Amino acid sequence: MATEPPLAFLQSRVLRILLAISLLVLQTVALAQAQAVSLEEATAHDLQLAFGQNKLTSRQLTKFYLNRIRRLNPLLRGVIEVNPDALCQADRADRERKVKPYGSLSALHGIPILLKDNIATKDKMNTTAGSFALLGSVVPRDAGVVARLRRAGAVLLGKASLSEWAHYRFSSDHSGWCARSGQGKNPYNLSATTCGSSSGSAISMAANMGAVSLGTETDGSILCPSSFNSLVGIKPTLGLTSRGGVVPITPRQDTVGPMCRTVADAVNVLDVIVGFDPYDAKATREASKYIPRGGYKQFLKADGLKGKRLGIVKAFFDFYSGTPVTKAFESHFNTLRKQGAVLVDHLELANMNEIYSYSSESVAISAEFKLALNTYLQDLVVSPVRSLADVIAFNNKHKHVEKIDEYGQDLFIAAQATNGIDKTVKSAWQNMTRLNRDGFEKLMRQNKLDALVTPENIVSTVLAIGGFPGINVPAGYDEDGVPFGICFGGLRGSEPTLIEIAYGFEQATKIRRPPTFLR
User: What range does the record give for the signal peptide (predicted)?
Assistant: First the structure.
């Protein structure tokens, strides 16, 4: 015979049901609030406003990007691995936001950032430059820029893919390929190039798989993928950002910079990552003199083009004659003039053919790479390889996964054959110093230019060999939907002026649009 349940049991059951309903309602409200904030294409400023208005949490935002990576990355291959501690970092940011005064936190606090996989993180993530040769290695410390990001409260979302070894293993043109993640795809046209070694950072930002990202450049590896993926990329003055803890190509040209969807986002990242680092002491100490008091955000001026003298080297544009780039730039020149800029046209860059022969640059990099990489590998706490020779041997042993037969490792082999800094390398250095002095520096100073304006990343070698800064901004799309950019390059330390110019152009044109994943 059944008995009636006791009153205490019924009360307990009712309370459990009511609690479950309450939790469901709270979860539904939280989800609705997150959806009310348009997270695709959202800027760091948008996200901080949503945080401040309790419409969004860092955890919700991080989960949004993790879900997009889970859904899109099997096609695009822009991310090598996600950080298993990302949600814990997001929770910490949410707790800090509740107890710290509004406005006291960094612009990147609680914002998920993707790091190119040659930028070291002392955590559960790998730092491999895209190669299985470094899988399982243990770095001694966070890279200098990563330490600054952690202090700013950013959420380290994961590691972006890259052209393996920052595109310095082989000379064949396979941009966006690395052994660990395969071939990266351009979200605007899956058949188009991703360009440059910071391909995964570009792919991921274009496809909204992260809020902001970091790339690295030796010669074009920030500017080129930013151009081909409709992003803003800042290649800073050499030493403005630390290279400590970054898998090197050459300390003479390597730099770390932001790759984002807007100029403002890129500037917010730049403000966090610049400054002195004892592990890159010489370069960062020298460049610290260029950092303006109050940071770079103050140069986000809508009228930033007013009064700026912009140089146009005819040869750079002749290269694009008859293409959509040429037609677009005719319109952009009119926009620049309407916004108050003075265009100094029909300029010539001295020794241009010699600069673009790559001879001096390639000779120097080959010797520098061997020395720099050996030093980096020997400093690792744990590593399967300790020298460039070890890496070459590893690749030969694992030909299938490293695609040695198809892509080769000719740049590695050439670098291994070098014998330190000899007379040939010193002569190459002297030659590049001359090319800088008689070329870009002379052009800028004689014509009193604030910046040189060029299509895409065609100016990257000029900027690379001199340690000069450049900013790419979206400038249009060709007949196949593939983006192209406009680059503003300047003398060392000219980031404030370049930011004014880039922001003024961006606000006057607002060209960027999200990709449609064309096949």
Answer: 1-34
| Catalytic one of 106, 131, 175, 197 | 197
Catalytic residue check, 308: no
What is the DSSP code (8-state) at residue 299?
G
d(CA 224, CA 430): 27
**Choosing from 131, 198, 221, 226, which is the catalytic residue?**
221
The 212-217 sheet, strands edge to edge: 79-82, 155-160, 112-116, 212-217, 255-260, 232-235, 470-477, 483-489, 451-455, 309-313, 342-347
Burial (Cβ within 10 Å: 0-12, 13-18, ≥19) of residue 156: buried
Give the Cα separation of 482 and 189 in Å (integer): 6
Q: Of 229, 292, 232, whose CA–CA distance to 257 is shortest?
A: 232
Q: What does each C-alpha distance from 517 to 45, 104, 175, 185, 200 come to in angstroms?
A: 26, 39, 18, 10, 15
Q: Report how many helices (DSSP H) and strands (DSSP E) the chain contains, helices first.
A: 22, 13
Residue pointed to by tokens 């009360």: 11
Pick the CATH number of 44-292+300-509 from 3.90.1150.10, 3.90.180.10, 3.90.1300.10, 3.30.365.10: 3.90.1300.10
The per-residue pLDDT for range 340-351, each reduced to its tens digit, is: 999 999 999 999
The distance of Cα 194 from the centroid of its chain, to the nearest Å, equals: 13
pLDDT per position as a tens digit, 404-441: 999 999 999 999 999 999 999 999 999 999 999 999 99
Cα–Cα distances in angstroms (integers) from residue 474 to residues 28, 215, 244, 344, 506, in the given order: 38, 17, 30, 22, 8
> With contact defined as beta carbons under 8 Å apart, do 93 and 223 qualify?
no
> Is 306 one of the catalytic residues?
no
CA distances from 488 to 178, 232, 346, 484 (A): 30, 11, 17, 14
Its pTM stands at 0.93
Residues 461 and 358: beta-carbon distance below 8 Å: yes
Q: Pick the catalytic residue from 58, 106, 116, 308.
A: 116
Q: Please, what is the end-to-end C-alpha distance for the chain in angstroms?
A: 70
Residue 476 corresponds to which tokens in the numbers above? 């249009």
Q: Could you report the per-residue pLDDT of 106-128, keeping only the tens digit for each?
A: 999 999 999 999 999 999 999 99
- Catalytic annotation on 116? yes
CA–CA gap between residue 30 and residue 36 (Å, rounded): 10
Contacts of 300 (CB under 8 A, 6+ apart): 263, 264, 267, 499, 500, 503
Structure-block tokens of residue 322: 């008859």
Site of tokens 């889970």: 70
- Cα distances (Å, whole numbers) of residue 34 to 30, 47, 77, 337, 512: 6, 10, 26, 41, 24
